[in-house]
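Q: What would this chain look like folded?
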Amino acid sequence: MNGAHDMGGMHGFGPVCRAPNEAVFHAEWERRMFGIAAAVPYAVPLGDDHLRRNIERIPAHEYLAVPYYELWFRSISGLLIEQGAITEDELARGTAAFAPLSQDAVRPSGVAQAVRDGASARAEVSDVPQRLAPGDIVRVSNDHPAYHTRVPRYVRGCVGRVMIDHGIFDFPDTKAQDAGACPQHCYSVEFTASEIWGADGDPTSTLAVDLWESHLTPAEETAPC
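A: My prediction, written as structure tokens:
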């Protein structure tokens, strides 16, 4: 989508300074929020695409001002209300009015193992045709959707080279809208810095971005943007 949430390549925020030996969590509530995020998918459909979609609904001035895990809290609580798993009153009071929807949710003692097990958006199909191949020159779609998309704004309309076919994955752009998995190939596409940033780009540098097949068109089939 367009807006402050797509911060890649934006100017004016200064350098990213990483503190030495920085803690993973800066407060106990952040640790708890991480654990809650691991449990929520047992109650309602929740994937990274839903999480990002709801974060992108947060007004820009609030998005830029709140801590990282507060974005998670706002996104997940909004999804739970939307799905009917909790009410706004329950959220405000901090207590449930009804029995839990599922008894199978991960327990606090199981969070660490759930994190170790991980999760994948790799599609459970193997027969989706591969339209592109490593070495192909492609142009990124220059779309400006009002919904969640995994295309960074700074590569829209740019031409790059397919480097790797990662295989078949669910399509985030449709999953975020609950419009189906739409499984398709995901590729690592390499761009020169000058293609992305023009004369300001380091001519010796390249950048690889993972993009889905729906985001890409063979360059010879499209006119320059």
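Strands lie at 137-140, 159-169, 184-192, 206-212, 216-218.
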